[in-house]
């Protein structure tokens, strides 16, 4: 088991997986969403290849543009 946090909510994963797979266990992502893993923004194009590790903190948020 791997213990991580997604938006400060503890999540238990059966095995190591990508952040994309981990997010699917909790929420359906939508366009315009951004992700930071341990404080580092990960481009959506890399979600499928970025692996989670024990203790990782994922923060999913809606990207907002403005002026």
UniProtKB/TrEMBL annotation:
<dbReference type="InterPro" id="IPR012675">
    <property type="entry name" value="Beta-grasp_dom_sf"/>
</dbReference>
<dbReference type="InterPro" id="IPR016155">
    <property type="entry name" value="Mopterin_synth/thiamin_S_b"/>
</dbReference>
<dbReference type="InterPro" id="IPR010035">
    <property type="entry name" value="Thi_S"/>
</dbReference>
<dbReference type="InterPro" id="IPR003749">
    <property type="entry name" value="ThiS/MoaD-like"/>
</dbReference>
<dbReference type="Pfam" id="PF02597">
    <property type="entry name" value="ThiS"/>
</dbReference>
<protein>
    <submittedName>
        <fullName>Sulfur carrier protein ThiS</fullName>
    </submittedName>
</protein>
């Amino acid at each position: 088991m791997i213990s991580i946090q997604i938006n400060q909510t503890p999540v238990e994963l059966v095995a190591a997986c990508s952040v994309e797979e981990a997010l699917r266990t909790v929420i359906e992502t939508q366009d315009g969403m951004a992700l930071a893993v341990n404080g580092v923004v990960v481009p959506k194009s890399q979600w499928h290849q970025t692996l989670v590790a024990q203790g990782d903190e994922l923060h999913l948020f809606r990207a907002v543009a403005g002026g």
